[in-house]
Each structure stands twice: as structure tokens, then as C-alpha cells.
Amino acid sequence: MYRQRLAALRQALAERKIDAFLLPRSDQYLNEDLAPADERLHWLSGFSGSQGLAVVTASDAALLVDGRYTVQAACECGDWLEVLDLDDGVLFDWLAQRLPAGANLAGDARLHSVAEWQGWQAAAERLGLHLIAVDGNPIDACWLDRPAASASAVSAQPLCWAGEAASEKLARLTAVLREHDCDALWLPAPDMVAWLLNVRGKDIAIAPLPFSSAMLYGDGGLDWFIDAGRLQLPDDWLPPQVRICPPEAASGLVGRLAQHACRRLWVDPQSCNADTMAQLRAASLDLYQEANPLLLMRACKNAAELEGSREAHRIDGLALCRFLHEFEAYPQRFVGEDELAVSAALADWRGRHADYRGVSFDTIAACAANGAQPHYLPKPGQAGRLERGELLLIDSGGQYPQGTTDVTRVLPLGPATVGQRALYTQVLRAHIALASCRFPGGTSGQQLDIIARRMMWQSGLDYGHGTGHGVGSYLQVHEGPHRIARHASPVPLRPGMITSIEPGVYLPGELGIRIENLYEVVACERHPGFLLFRALTLVPLEPTLIDRSQLSSEERSWLDDYQACVRDTLAPQLEPAVANWLRRKTAGAEQSAALH
Amino acid sequence: MYRQRLAALRQALAERKIDAFLLPRSDQYLNEDLAPADERLHWLSGFSGSQGLAVVTASDAALLVDGRYTVQAACECGDWLEVLDLDDGVLFDWLAQRLPAGANLAGDARLHSVAEWQGWQAAAERLGLHLIAVDGNPIDACWLDRPAASASAVSAQPLCWAGEAASEKLARLTAVLREHDCDALWLPAPDMVAWLLNVRGKDIAIAPLPFSSAMLYGDGGLDWFIDAGRLQLPDDWLPPQVRICPPEAASGLVGRLAQHACRRLWVDPQSCNADTMAQLRAASLDLYQEANPLLLMRACKNAAELEGSREAHRIDGLALCRFLHEFEAYPQRFVGEDELAVSAALADWRGRHADYRGVSFDTIAACAANGAQPHYLPKPGQAGRLERGELLLIDSGGQYPQGTTDVTRVLPLGPATVGQRALYTQVLRAHIALASCRFPGGTSGQQLDIIARRMMWQSGLDYGHGTGHGVGSYLQVHEGPHRIARHASPVPLRPGMITSIEPGVYLPGELGIRIENLYEVVACERHPGFLLFRALTLVPLEPTLIDRSQLSSEERSWLDDYQACVRDTLAPQLEPAVANWLRRKTAGAEQSAALH
Hints:
Two copies of one chain form a homodimer. In chain A, 36% of the residues lie in helices and 18% in strands. The first copy, chain A, contains 19 helices and 27 strands. The longest helix of chain A is centred in the middle third of the chain and has 27 residues, at 303-329. Chain A binds chain B through residues 437-440, 443, 447-451, 454, 457-460, 462, 486, 524, 526-527, 530, 552, and chain B through 437-440, 443, 447-451, 454, 457-460, 462, 486, 524, 526-527, 530, 552.
């Protein structure tokens, strides 16, 4: 099947005189999660990972993926293409060996970031190739049963959860625009528009986003590029200065800017695709290329969004407790079953609440050595079985109109071994080190990353991912601009930001342990100018995996306080059996010792 | 006196049609420490701080200094000039109010970094001013009794301490040059040449530097710009490819590069002054503007340099112990005296060793509230008196042919109070947190800074300086490229690097506490790929200031191990009274408790 698709693509390329074609896993919004119509790479290759790039010539084809997908890509794609390391140098050499000088290298610039496309331009120049931005993706011509573009209904995000009317957000953003002497701001991504206009949709599976983009002008007016037929909004929901424009109109941006006499345009090269950027650069515009100011405004949640997030975490915590209780009380329902049974049971418990709107990302339920792959996803027919003696890692989250959740817990299948407890306790200490940190305003996640990580370093361990990410308010589970990671942007953490803290340890072939909570950043009352993390996630930590003798007295206090907070918040709302289970799980020092 | 000097300068400026003149505290090598002939700012203003910028117009004059010097500048300079914040915006407004468009703003580009000069150019453009690089500093024309330029004898740094012949260093550096396809490397600074050629001099007071600069060519040849009459080197000390060129020849760099058919020149904009950079930019050269590769080579000390540093720290530790013993055993010699008596006694003890070559920086002896100024220097007539009940902070270092030292200790003048012990213990915990940290290769000082700092943050405290700096081998006490600070360069720490760790706490009007040791970075034997700090400094920590009940068991182990290492290394070489004192100071847990 894939060989036929490849042959069809090659014919399309030949007709267009394209010698090599680049196909990333992406869409025009540079989304991490794709709608079915945008799964071009999966259609062509069968590869189901979240990141990859195919390159196809008349005689050869390769798929470039990073380390976490090498094995998976080889399994999914078979031998009709080469699997290579996702590394610029590797692709450069691959192209150099196959293309003569003067050949045409092509890509769909809408699917590439500005920085990526610049990289292709530099590579093409060094190889003596012509880099061509195709007009219409050649895959679309071959993909005969391509699903229709997503066009879900667009509904209102009520003010009780949004906390600020769109008119006020527009006014604040317009003021920033004017401060920087800009006449317009390009808002290319659906998540930006969804926040700004307090609207939600369902164009992708895991975040309530309606595909659309918008241009904000210095006079406060906004062109919203979306099909008017999709809107199911109350009258007067949209401020009068919002103009509904057909999505196609977004391709004539330069003309619109000229009509509005725009001289200086704010465009964030991090979020603008290379096709749009090329159009803007070709026009006689003064481009102000800085981080989109909407991102920081959105990241600092207002009181309603924070209260919503707390409520979402209470709802989510109740579902998690019910699941965890079932898992422990009825092991026969799970042991021997596969990891997908865990995802299903969890989805079932979450789904019993009327406000549940689906997962905020595909649930990672990973048993034993599968847990050592931080991005493991169980698949039908290939999912691991739950065996006694192993650890089960569950990283999952839910979408609620009140907010978005994301939590990772690790459970022992039977009595924990000394080694399992030592590692879990180590990860817990790393988690507590950061979660209990007090830091002055101006401190960035780039700086804080090491606070958790160094606790792993002391034992010669580390983890190959960041320590935390921002989270949206009933939006995407990964939301910037802040992030707790070595190479994150240096934007300081501010009160009202939400971030995960999720250190881990991964022993290939053995196990994976990660402990993840979401926190809000709050001002420290005792020391003015300092900030703290306050836990949002309400799910008990597993006492049988904790070796309290390894904890300092401060660490024990943090743990006992956290467990008590979970218990005191959730137990009154739980049925007696689960409430009792929760009280046992969250008992303090003495009772905990009795567990072993 | 200063009014007369200002008048003379104004006349010189008028003759040259200069409307405003910028005078930083700097020399053509952009040194932190100046020779007497380069103390132009001090001559003009009387200001003796280490950083400042004067700006003089026909009618006004201002001195810009940062926060630590505001009070001092006002005292030293009187009312004939304004003292302003060293902030670009402040100077911009000051100039805007005083100069009409079209006026001439001038500076000596040799005294400015490339980035600074670019800043002036941008400011001048916005203000409609002409920025002029003067030819010859107008101060020099007015400063009739200006000291002669320093031209100390240049001697060899023996191979037993340098550890690598100049010919080998030249070969290694030339290889890096060729790897980057460069034809030449500009070495503008005396410390670079001193390391490269294994030579030392005495052109400034606190580091053994002979003023000179050099150009290295891709063929391995080196033009050394220095007066041949200064050289007192053994025959054959210099490799044959080193050509001695008169210092004036350095002003004809572009011509020399043309003679050598240089096409691509490696020049580090961080260390090149703006005057030289302007010449290079005007020539038809391809400038490769990256960090000077010599810096990283020099920072990773070889075995002889490391053994030398250990030896220097043993010598220095013996002197410090003798001083500390005297200070404690004969309090009548110090209490009631001023801080300069401390500096003098310390210099006396250090000076008794034949290898002592002087201080590595001016000794900070700061009693009580003076300690709250991290860069406080006692001055004759103004130095504080040592009063019982207060703390004395001593930050000092020595130069030895074996290496350079830098250590800060805090002593109680009498029994320590509970508050003093709490703060000292807090700083000690911050110090231990970083000193005991294990980290993977690739980790930078930029990342590590927070490890010490967060221990202060937990109590709502912080310190307004970096946590550590690199140190030279019988060279400057501040040596890059690595540094442990938030805004440091992201260059990773590597085995063989030397760094200080020096967290502190400063309560204005009350006290200052800083605990500083030097450490070498070493590979961790237990966890391959990880690095550790190993202490170089051998000076006991003050047990009567430590509240052991506040230390974790790991912190107590670190402390006891450190004290034991100091004792076991130094006691056998000390006279009985001092050795006994050291044994008491460094006793473990039980004995320490008995002290209180």
C-alpha cells in the first residue's frame, strides 16, 4: 500500500519537475497535534510518531526521526524507506549523495517553521540546489480519500471560566501593540485566537481548538479568518470590532495590511510558518519580529482561570482516586490484562463526570520496561501486559471547561522491591526539591530546571526531558512561553502561571518512574518579592514506594502536607470505600511505617 | 585641584571641537586593574572605584557609577560633578538635555569594548550627534605629571609550573585556527600572551602581567608586540617562530595582516577594543567573531598547573592559619585597631614565605556593617574599627609562581550571637550545596548558580553578585571563560577548571557574611560522565559560627571531611601552638559541640 502511495507521489513530483520533496509531520499552524486531514506523513509512510520528516526522490526515500522513534519507525515503515537520525548533517549528506547540482528540492513552506525553512535554504545553497516552495502540497493530489478538513462547531468559553471578556483582552493586546509602535499583530495559531475571543472548538482530538487565525490592528479591529457557518456563539459574544473573514482571505494578508495602511507589523517568527513569513517579507513592511505578546498575557492566568483549574483538578482527582482504588482493590481486573485496559478504565472513570471533555493528550500507560520510554504509547495488539512485581507508569490528563489537567503516577503491581522504592524516593526528592523551592521574581524556568535534576545527578542519574511545561486553561496541555528546561526561553515565572513539575528516572529495559503534578505560581506572603509553587494536582503519592528514611525532615513535611491536602479536599466527596482507601494512602509518618 | 583639571580638559576639548567627552575607567587592554598611567578617571575625578564613566561638556560634568559606588563617588568627588546611575538610559537623557543636534560626542575608542562603542553609536544616532573616536586621549595632554607607562621586566614562568612549553601551546592554538579556516588570531590582552608564551611581568600591582599583545598566524608564527629591552628570558625560552615587534607596530595591524596574505581573521569582540575593531572592519578582511579559543585552552589547567595550585593553597593555608591563630590568641593586637591592621597582619604572614609575590587583589577586611558592601575596601583614615561582638569578613588572596589564591572567611569578635550563627550556617549550607554537587559534563556555571543561591532564597535572602569565577595560574584572580552566575556564558565546566564558590548574605547597616573557597573541577570516578568539585582552599571554617543542628547529615559529613582535610594537610607543617589551635578548630561533631 505504501509503495503505491510512494509511486503516486513520485509521479506527482515528476510532473512538477521536483527532484526531492521534504514532508514534515506538521500543519499550517505548526501544531504538535494534527487533524486527520493533516496526517500526510502517516498516510505516506505509516509512521505514527509525533515528529518526523520524510524525504523522497525519484529513486530513494528516507524517514528521519529522533532517538525515541528509531525502533518504532523501522517497525511501522518496513524496508521501502531508510530510517535515519533526525539530524541536519545526516539529511545534508543523504541529499548530497543523491542530487546533482541544479536539482530542485521542494517543500510545502506552510508546514515549516521560519527557522527550519532557513535551514533548508542554507543547505540548498551549499549543495547548489534550487529550494522551491510548492504551490499546493503534492500529497493532497495523490491522497484520494483524504478526510475533509476539520471544521467543528465553534462555541463560547463562558466568562465564568474565561474570567475576562474578549473586548478587554483585545483592548489590552492592542495597547501593547501601540506601545511598540506596531500597526498590526499576526495571530497565526488557533490556540491564540481561542484564548483571545473566548471560543473553543474540536478540530483536533485532544485540545478544544477551532482552526483559525487572525490579524489584530492598532485601531483594535480584528480580522478573524474562519468560516462563519461554523460559529455557534451567543448573540453579542464577539465584540463589534471583530470581523469574520473567510479562511481563504488569510492568503491575501499583504493586501489587507495595505488596505489598513499598516507600516509596521508584529510577527513572531517562532509561530509563523515559512510560507506566510515569505509573503510578509516580500511586501514593503517593517517587520517587528519578537515573541507574540499574547503568549505572556495568556500564561498569567486570571482569578477565574485559576479557580477553574483548581476545580478541574478536584474533579480529575476524584476520578483518579476512584481508578486507583479500583486498581488496588480489584487487581484481578488488571493484572494480566494489557496497558490499554488501564487507559480505558481511567477514561471510564473520568468520563463519568458531566464536565469531562476528553483526554488532554493520549494516555501513557506503561508497564515495566515500557516505562523507560518517556513518550511510550500503548497500541492495540502491541501493548504490554501488567505483570506482578513490575511498576506501572500512568501519565494522563483531562480536558474540562474549567481547565486542563496532566498528572503522572507510578503504581507497584504487588509489594514494591527495595530497588523500586529507592528509585521512586529519589524521584520524589527531586520533585519536592523544586516544588518546595522559593525563588525571587525574575527567576526563569531555565534556571529552576537544575533544582530537581541535581537530586538525580547526586546518584549519577538524569532524565532526557525538561522538568516542566506550561499548561493552558481548557486549551493545550503544552502552553508557553514559560517552561522549566535547560534550553527553555529565559522568560521569568510570574504569579498566575501554571507549570508541571515532572522529574523522572528511566532505566532502559527495566523501568521508568516519573512523578508529575501541576502547580500554580503564587506570591510568597512571608517574603515579599519571592514566589512559590502551590499544588493544583490532587492525587495521592504512593506510600508503599516511599522510603521515608531517605527523606529529610523538610521533605517529610512537604510530603505529609501534600497528602493531607489531597485527603482533606477529596475524601469528603468520595464514597466511603474510596474515602477510606484515600485516608490509608495519605496517612502520615506512623501509619505509613505500618504499611511496610 | 579637580576643578583645575576639569578646566584644563575643557580647554583641550574646545581646541578639538569636542562638545562632550566620555571617559571610562579602562585601558587599551580593557583590563579590570589599571597601571598608574592608565588611571585617567581617578586623575580627573578623584574617584577610586573599579568601575565608572565620566562625561564632560563645556558646562556640565557627571560621573556614572553603579549602586555599590554611589555613596563613595559622592564622598570622593565632591559637588563639582553630578553622580548618576551607571545606566544607558540615564546618560542618554543627560546628553539629550545638554547637547544640540549636530554636536560632537567623543571618546577614546581604545578604552571601550566593541559592544560599549556600538551602544554610543546607537545613542549618538538617536540624538543626532556625531560620535568621534579621538586620536590621542585629551586627558594625556592635560595630565602633566602622568606616570610613565609601565614597562616591567618580563621573566619566564618555569615549565615546572606552566606544565606545557610555549611551542606546544602555539601548536595547539594554531591547529584550532586552521580547523576554523582562519589565517590569523588577534590576541589583544596581556594575560593571553603571558599564558601562551609562559612569561610574567609586573605592569599592574595585583597580577603578574607584562603589557603586550600578539598576532598568531596560521603558519604558527607569532608577532609579539613588546619592547625587546624588557625581556629577561633564558636563551631559547621563546620558540623560534615568535617575532619580537615594537609595541607601536600593533597600530599597523591591517598592513601586517596584508603582508601575511591573511584573508580570514579570528577576532573575539569581547576582548578587542573598539579602536582596533574599527581598523579591522575597515580593512577587506573576513572577520570570524567568536570567543577566543585560547581562553578555554587556558581554563582547563594541566597537571602541573593543578599541582601548582594545590601547592600554592598549602602555602597560603599555612599563612592564613598562622594569622587566624594570632587573631584569636592575641585579640588585644586587633580589637580596637582598624581593618587595615588586619590586611597588614595578613600580608605580613603571607610575606614570610619566599614564594609569595603579593596580593592577588586588594584585601577586603570589613568589620560589622562594612561587610554588607561586598566590594568594600578599607582606606587609611576611613577604615572601620574592630569592635567586640561584631563579625569581621576577610576576602583576600595571594600570588605565588605555583598559582593564585582567593579565600573569604568570617570571624566573630568574641562569642557569636544566635543571629550571627544562624546566618553563617545558612551561607555555609548554600556553599556546601554547590560544593558537594555532582553534575554531568555539559553543565554550565550559568545552570549551577542557583544551587547555592536557592538555599538563601528559602529564607527570603539573596546576594547581589555571582556565585563563582574562574581563577588563573599565577595570573588574574578573575579568569574566564567560565563563571558561576546567572548571566554567565553557557560554556560548560570541564575537568581541570578552577572556580570559586562564594555565596553570601548582606544585611545593610548590620553585617556581611561570605564563605569562599576555590575548587578544581574533577571527573567523578563513581559515575562516569559526571563531574565534582574538589577543594583547593585549605583554611578552616569557623566552628563557633556554625549551628550544627541546622545541618543535614550530608552537610555535616561534608563539613567534617573538609575540616579534616585542612587539618591533616596543614597541621604537620605548623608549629605546635598553631597546629593545636587548628586541631581544635577542625574537631568533629563531639568536640565542636563542646565549644559552645
